[in-house]
Write a structure and sequence with these properties.
- By secondary structure, this protein is an alpha+beta fold.
- The chain folds into 2 domains: 131 residues, Roll (Nuclear Transport Factor 2, Chain: A); 85 residues, Lipocalin (Beta Barrel), CATH 2.40.128.
- The protein contains 4 helices and 14 strands.
- The strands form 2 sheets. Strands 7-8-9-10-11-12-13-14 form an 8-stranded antiparallel β-barrel.
- Strand 7 and strand 8 form a beta hairpin.
- The radius of gyration is 22 Å and the shape is elongated.
Length: 246
């Protein structure tokens, strides 16, 4: 397997398998939890701080996709100060709700569409929320969300004639994990062990990405033009250098 995908592949696969047709029938209590989430989301979209506040505990923990932790006050301030040209809409789906007495955990996938003056930004996210029932209402006490590697990054047209230079085996040390890059029908593919092959999609003649990762992969050459490996750069700028072994 490639860098940092241990355990995550199963998550993406299972998330993709929980579609509308497979959604289990919800109990009335589970539907109550989902309704509380949807009401809070609607309040956020309308910039209605008072309505939003009713569904959130004062000491609620918001853990964001960049690893920071926010308070209710910080989130409330953001809800009320969105610029007029910003129109955030969400498309929640794939609900999973587990209820434990007066506590409930909600997991869902959603799409955010952020419309600005001259451009749109679309993101795919997965969220887990924890609720407690208080005075007959489900109140949010914790929220954690993470960005799913985007499918909106677009590959570009490149010189596929040079792809043969990238074919070979690459080693991810110290994992002793050998990755095979192959060429088929003018496309580059990567595969490790028993994993299913994934297409390397081009961002340039020497730079590629995978649908399941946020980072990029840039092939390296020596002074003679021979490919020696590639550098994987994660979304936060950290890098891993992968050696070509044959």
């Amino acid at each position: 397997m490639r860098f940092h995908r241990y355990g995550l592949v199963a998550l993406w696969v299972s998330a993709g398998m929980i579609g509308a047709a497979d959604q289990p029938k919800l109990t009335p209590t589970q539907q109550e939890v989902i309704s509380a989430h949807e009401a809070r989301t609607a309040a956020s979209n309308k910039r209605d701080q008072a309505a939003y506040s009713r569904y959130v505990a004062d000491d609620c923990i918001f853990s964001t996709d960049n690893g920071t932790v926010a308070t209710k006050a910080q989130v409330m301030a953001h809800v009320g100060k969105l610029p007029t040209e910003y129109d955030r809409s969400t498309k929640p789906r794939e609900y999973l709700v587990h209820v434990y007495g007066d506590t409930a955990v909600l997991n869902l996938r959603y799409t955010t569409h952020e419309q600005f003056t001259d451009s749109d930004i679309v993101s795919e996210m997965r969220m887990t929320e924890t609720y407690v029932k208080k005075d007959g209402s489900w109140i949010l006490i914790a929220r954690q969300w993470a960005k799913i590697p985007t499918s909106f990054r677009k590959p570009v047209t490149t010189d596929t004639g040079i792809y043969k230079d990238y074919v070979g085996q690459y080693e991810w040390r110290p994992l002793d994990d050998v990755e095979t890059i192959s060429l088929k029908d003018g496309k580059l593919w990567t595969q490790s062990g028993d994993d299913a092959p994934e297409e390397f999609l081009p961002l340039g003649n020497d730079t590629f990405f995978l649908r399941t990762e946020l980072g990029t992969n840039k092939f390296l050459r020596d002074a003679h033009g021979h490919v020696t490996g590639y550098t994987y750069q994660d979304a936060d700028g950290q890098e891993v250098h992968v050696k070509k072994i044959n």
